[in-house]
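User: For a benchmark we're assembling, each entry needs the component sequences followed by a predicted structure for the full assembly. Here are entry 17's components. Please fill in the structure.
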Amino acid sequence: MNSMKHLSNLMDELLIPLRENEEPTLALIVENLLEDVDCDIVAQYSLAIISKKVPENIKERIVKVAKDDFPNLNVIYIWCITMALYNLIIPEDGAPIQKQQAIYSLILRNSMIIKHGHFNEILFQDLVAEMICIWETFWNAQSFNDTATTCLENHILSKKEDDNLEITQNDSLALRKLVLKVRETQLRADIVNVNSSNEYETACSLANKMISDCYWYEVYASPANFLKENVSKKELLTFQKIITKLLSSEVLLDSVHYNNCNPSSIILRAFNGDSECKDYQSKMNPLTFAIYIYQEMLLEKLINK
Amino acid sequence: MAEDIVQNNPIDRLLDSKETHISQQSSESKSEISEKSVRPFSTLYGDAVSDEDANSFMSNGTKPKLIVLVGFADYGKTSFVASAFRKLVLQGGTTIDGSNYLLVNTLTIVGFERRMYLRWNNEHNEVNTKRTTLTENSLLHIQLQGETCENYDYVISDRSGEVYTNYVSRKDAVQKDQLIEHADLVVFFVNSQLLNENCFIDLDDKYTQLLTRLKQSNKLNPKSKFIVCFTKDDDKGVGYDDSLATDIVEKIKKFCELDSIDEFHINAMNLLDKDDVVQRLCGEIWRPIKRKQEHPNLNWNKNMLNKE
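Assistant: Structure for entry 17:
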């Protein structure tokens, strides 16, 4: 672990540099923040980084490690939390990305909804950008080779009489496309019933159907193409209004109710009545909202799998 | 006189001017500004802070614009700060490139108030103002709000002129300076009353040594913006020679490695006039620093939609 190599990111955000004797304390704080980490703690870190608000329990951990004369600055706290998360998500040089690292990356991505439309306010953007890309890199690589083939073998080809058909690695791209086509066709048939006059409701129902379909989320890294074809982006409401509108739909709420969801799943928490998550004023269209909720449901599925 | 002071109480004026400014807004933006404006005035108590505590102005995690005023004693730095603040208070805000910015907060009202009072006293009582002392804290804070309610923070370093006299004689003192090299804007002050045959040699000598020290210690950061401010322009005195002002400007340009530099000739005791020079100078001082561009990978939601 070498947190100090990104010290310049912190120095860029300060009016004057830290004193030399304060730098080792930063490393100690980061090290402390790496202890006893789970998905909920990672979500707390992620939300602190994106919102620039550090919860009291994390502040207490930092203050415990820091000496009395250490500068009590929010920006320093945020940098330490960012570096802790960076160490958790970014693999050591050359090492492959672990699934847990990818999940942590997804948690950070999901928490960014609270700054939708205001991403320029996020501190240490280079580091955050590097961390959120880990999810995509991992998931694309995973789904491409292994899962598509398994799905095809287990769920589609097994229903046919020809058991002698062998699948080679060279076939994987074509097979993946084939699996997707089959599942898309089935989903398309399903969504005839989904279309609602409320586009945000359609977005929710569709994301929910896609996540409930195990083939879909295991095979397809990105839901974008399918959602683009089926969800409009014409309307533009604030997050607060979207949630209020959706909360009045009882049928919908039954299908998207997740107990004890991860703190980074802001939409699902809002559906659960978490008042902290209802008041965001960022505007988003139904398609953007659909992508966010899909990713939240995906995270819940992965964590609880 | 006491009545004058009461009538010109900057806090009352500050609040009054805010009311006036807000009443001119549309009803929607009025409510937004009112809501945002309530909170900051809970902080009407802070004094100037020391250079070592500069980072304490970073409480909300947003980097303020750092403005460093450089010049020797009696060059008008503190008068300028007092007048600039008074202008914001009395005129409600300022206009930069056609947009209006409202004064909404300061974390160092006491620091400003003292500077304003001492200069006011000097002007009306004909007694010499106590100069900014060597040990006095120098950093002051201002927060302006743009028309779309975004806030911009500024930290101004108004040090005693003796600090810069020390820099001329002591290399180690310059090396310890942490503000100039990190400044977004450095304002070099020159007393116009010294631009005559009798006084210029001393002024030129001191400025040359100061600039040499700053250059040798790598304190003149090419990323900073530099401007020159000639004060006491209304009372330049006998023997004023305009070419000496040009000499000083050329010297500063040379040390800062600039092809051109903006210069302003003002009366630092009074910036209330809306003449072109004052407007341009205030525009330069309060011009917000460019916000960082958003990293292209951060909007992953949009990128996901565009990619496929």
